[in-house]
């Protein structure tokens, strides 16, 4: 600032012109525009946090006059200030309505002096007074107000133009993403954000663990929020038409909240024999509402290729699309989910009315295959997309619909419409329900 003539003192925060008590008169050494002004006149002040009593609210400043501090940089006053030089200059500016330039110092690790300075416009001194400062010495206070009609201040967040290209990733300031192409381009494309607080990454694949739904493309598909809360190891906030979780194309790790259903079993489950329903499943642990209990695992098959002649009671139809659209008597799930565009097309009504794929846990499966039906279930079926966005091939996870005490049988609603199951010869099959619920409809199908 000294070099460019913006502020001609190395140490003083107030720059001023003219000698004390002098008034410029025509023909004197002052330029004609100063005629009639009493000197000194302050020309600029630098706010650098040097004084312990400074207050700065950007548009309004309470600035401590100069003098009386120990110049050691520790901001301590050691004697009274006097109304001379810069202090008098500010007072004269107030009395003669002369605006003052304001320069602010900002801490900056990137500057070799540890600070950068910005010019923040013209301010008017509107008031001044003397008071005892924090250290007990008299200090002058000057209240300055930023003049109207000037460009908005942009230096709350100082932005730097660097004269050289960073040598390495670690030198890039405000780095929010090392490579937005996620390795798909030969040359990585880093993203930086020095504006937002906290800084967000551009939309795209997720990095680290997703903490901000705005910067997680998968969370945005869920209606711009994570479907889970962290509590109890991750709980689904509410049943959704479909949950979009982070997957293999995201850069986030297994700890990401938006991978809650992918963490495997968390409760000690037991397969136990029931009196009338064959095997059933219960938990030794308390399961909180919204906790994913287990995924329905088996062999993925086309529904029309399943052998209906064989008695296979471990087929799970992937009917997420039907549930989402409320087709075939299925109760439609609410939720502001962004449907993949192909689901909006209405040209494939037939394939929409019957689930195209199913999970066959008859020969290969996990504990989910032993979970029985109930007309008053304590689990619900949640469709989840993570590795792709084909709803017809969604993963199926069973989630706690309620707080489930230990040793209570785990059940979900199989969702059969009555008289919907037929033998290969077209005869309607029926199965009695022994769920024992108060409002049991007495038939599974
Ligand atoms: C997916 S399996 C469940 C595990 C089965 N209980 C077992 O022993 O392997 C579905 C079969 O369990 C039986 N089941 C499930 N829920 C039932 C219920 N509420 N009432 C009667 N039987 C039921 C039926 O035989 C049904 O076909």
Automatic annotation (TrEMBL):
Q: Pre-SET domain: which residues?
A: 202-264
Q: Which InterPro entries match?
A: H3K9_HMTase_SUVAR3-9, Post-SET_dom, Pre-SET_dom, PUA-like_sf, SET_dom, SET_dom_sf, SRA-YDG_sf, SRA_YDG
Q: Name one GO molecular function term.
A: methyltransferase activity
The segment(s) forming the Post-SET domain are 429-445
SMART domains associated with the record = PreSET (SM00468), SET (SM00317), SRA (SM00466)
Q: What is its main location?
A: nucleus
**Which UniProt keywords are given for this protein, alphabetically ordered?**
Chromosome, Methyltransferase, Nucleus, S-adenosyl-L-methionine, Transferase
Q: One Gene Ontology cellular component annotation?
A: nucleus
Q: Where is the YDG domain?
A: 1-146
Q: Give the SET domain ranges.
A: 267-415
Query: Does the keyword Cell membrane belong to this entry?
Result: no
Any Gene Ontology biological process: methylation
> May I ask which residue range the UniProt record assigns to the signal sequence?
none
Pfam families, A to Z: Pre-SET, SAD_SRA, SET
Output this protein's name. Answer: Histone-lysine N-methyltransferase, H3 lysine-9 specific SUVH4
Please name the source species.
Ilex paraguariensis
